[in-house]
């Protein structure tokens, strides 16, 4: 597609956008009586307008039914998670029994590592991306120490080559192959939080399995952002948060995926709780843990009704648009336009003030574009915020901008470019 750096072009693209009406389904923060151009869905998604209604229904159930709400009413809490499972499965490319909403992300990462990180004296290493989100680093380090190994010996971090910002798939595969006999687990993010790089999860999973390792993913920045096919890719396990691209509110409930090939494996360890017990016999209160079939068997605590209600509100909007394929189709074009606009700003300035470190290949990125500001980055970012453009700042000099297809427009991207150009000229004239 041939883009134009004009407001008229941006507006024409918005008129043709099949998802343009979805923008009205969300609430935008305000400043000085004007809504923000919100480009921070990679950190916290916007509130769906329907969230208050869906949450209110559950508050009404609590008020009117109290403890009977577990079994009475239109949406008994005992089974509420099953409606979410139906809506979650298409988001990550799974069967309904392979997913479950529960806990928060890092808690779930630990619970799943109990089952799928089973180190031995010979095979004890974990291979991961260098520069993974700190929670992943800390969780993996603590799991390694828990099993009595030294993180310096047990954790292999695959880093970009010198002078580069992103990883090549062939380098990841080569690192897995080179250490294959010692690897117990391959654990990557689906999308790197800093660069926005989308990893080739299918190829990574195949490479891990070829050396006899289990393979899992933290999908915090991928779920609700890009189409996933966890079942078909043969991924062993995954977990994600729901508050970024899935707009389920700050600290929103997490989700897990466990491939159905593991459901009958009686040798898997797990940290058990009452809510993971076989549903039909749960209230017999008997000793001896018998897990519910599927991902539900990894539950520990009872249904978190209110966080699930917020997640439910957002998932209904994904169902309304047909889940991930329409979202991804718009995202590719919208992000491509953001690349174009940043390039246009650099041309107008006369040098590369903004260096994009997110891959330009559409198959290697989602909605996030990470930009190094080579001069006065924080001053530029603060100017954007002052003028109602809200992205995300990462030290020392990176601005992350995510044009989320569910609620961002081409006009948002054009207007952001205009502000970037204006502030850059001002900075360079100081």
TrEMBL record:
Cofactor dependence is on: pyridoxal 5'-phosphate
Q: What is this protein called?
A: Kynureninase
Q: Name one GO molecular function term.
A: kynureninase activity
Q: Which family does it belong to?
A: Belongs to the kynureninase family.
Q: Where is the Aminotransferase class V domain?
A: 49-263
**UniProt-annotated binding residues for pyridoxal 5'-phosphate:** 105-106, 133-136, 218, 221, 243, 274
Q: What are the protein's UniProt keywords?
A: Hydrolase, Pyridine nucleotide biosynthesis, Pyridoxal phosphate
């Amino acid at each position: 597609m041939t883009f134009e750096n004009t407001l008229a072009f941006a507006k024409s693209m918005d008129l043709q956008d099949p998802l343009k009406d979805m923008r009205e389904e969300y609430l935008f923060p305000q400043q000085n009586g004007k809504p923000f151009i919100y480009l921070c869905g990679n950190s916290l998604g916007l509130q769906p307008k329907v969230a208050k209604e869906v949450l209110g229904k559950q508050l009404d159930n609590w008020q009117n039914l109290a403890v009977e709400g577990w079994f009475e009413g239109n949406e008994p809490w005992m089974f509420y998670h099953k409606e979410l499972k139906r809506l979650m499965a298409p988001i990550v490319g799974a069967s309904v029994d392979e997913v479950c909403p529960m806990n928060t992300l890092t808690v779930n990462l630990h619970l799943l590592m109990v089952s799928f990180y089973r180190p031995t004296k010979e095979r004890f290493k974990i291979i991961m991306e260098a520069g993974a989100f700190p929670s992943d680093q800390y969780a993996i380090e603590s799991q390694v120490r828990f099993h009595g190994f030294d993180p310096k010996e047990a954790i292999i971090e695959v880093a970009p080559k010198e002078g580069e910002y992103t990883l090549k798939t062939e380098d990841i595969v080569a690192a897995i192959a080179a250490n294959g006999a010692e690897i117990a687990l391959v654990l990557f993010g689906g999308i790197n939080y800093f660069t926005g790089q989308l990893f080739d999860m299918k190829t990574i999973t195949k490479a891990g399995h070829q050396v006899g390792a289990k393979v899992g993913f933290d999908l915090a920045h991928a779920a609700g952002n890009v189409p996933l096919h966890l079942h078909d890719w043969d991924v062993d396990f995954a977990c994600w948060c729901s508050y970024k691209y899935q707009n389920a509110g700050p600290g929103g409930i997490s989700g897990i995926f466990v491939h159905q090939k593991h459901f009958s494996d009686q040798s898997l360890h797990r940290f058990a709780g009452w809510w993971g017990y076989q549903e039909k016999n749960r209230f017999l209160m008997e000793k001896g843990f018998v897990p519910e079939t599927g991902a539900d068997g990894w539950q520990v605590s009872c249904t978190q009704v209110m966080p699930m209600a917020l997640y439910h509100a957002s998932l209904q909007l994904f169902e309304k648009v047909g889940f991930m394929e329409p979202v991804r189709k718009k995202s590719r074009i919208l992000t491509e336009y953001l690349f174009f606009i940043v390039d246009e700003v650099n041309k107008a300035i006369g040098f590369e003030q903004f260096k994009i470190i997110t891959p330009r290949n559409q198959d290697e990125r989602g909605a996030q574009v990470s930009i190094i500001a080579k001069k006065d980055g924080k001053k530029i970012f603060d100017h954007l915020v002052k003028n109602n453009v809200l992205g995300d700042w990462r030290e020392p000099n990176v601005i992350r901008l995510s044009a989320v297809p569910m609620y961002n427009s081409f006009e948002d991207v054009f207007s952001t470019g205009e502000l970037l150009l204006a502030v850059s000229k001002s900075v360079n004239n100081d």
